[in-house]
Write a structure and sequence with these properties.
434 Repressor (Amino-terminal Domain); three-stranded antiparallel sheet; 189 residues; 25% helix; DNA-binding
Amino acid sequence: MSSTEMEAPEAAGLGDRLRARRQAAGLSLAALAEATGLTKGYLSKVERGVGQPSIGTIYRLADALGLPAAQLLTHGGPPSALADITRASPATPPQDGDLLLRPLFPSNTGQLIALEMWPPLQARPSQDTSTHAGEELLHVLSGQMEILFENQTLLLNTGDTLRFDARRPHRTRSLGPQRARVLLVLVEG
């Protein structure tokens, strides 16, 4: 699997959360690798903040650790009973590189997960498709992207919205010279 570029705080946060949850479960890197079908080297990169797994891989990791994916994707504090607000912070993706994800509600632990996503310019290999329980909603904020299913490819332009069953294997990529900027909403099922 290829490494992914991500803003340092988010990358380190995901890696730190993965390591803490793995250690709390009493698992070595080798044991987690065996449970998920991932390599020990790849998991080490993710824990060090060097690699960003796909959403499907995050769900596989969470499944192996027996916790909701939101506990790996976000900082884990309880959401407010009234409302949560996350103030804007700049996020400029690099022109090249792999998937870039940024949690929009870093303390969310509910069933709804909102991320800002910049799909890579090159699609991930077919063996690295995302598939997980629940639903996904993609809303293209800027740019153009495609989503590749097994036997179907859909083109999405700025302003387009797609909802689908996330158990359907899928991959995304940006089209054109600029990476697309996408609102990704996951509802765990």
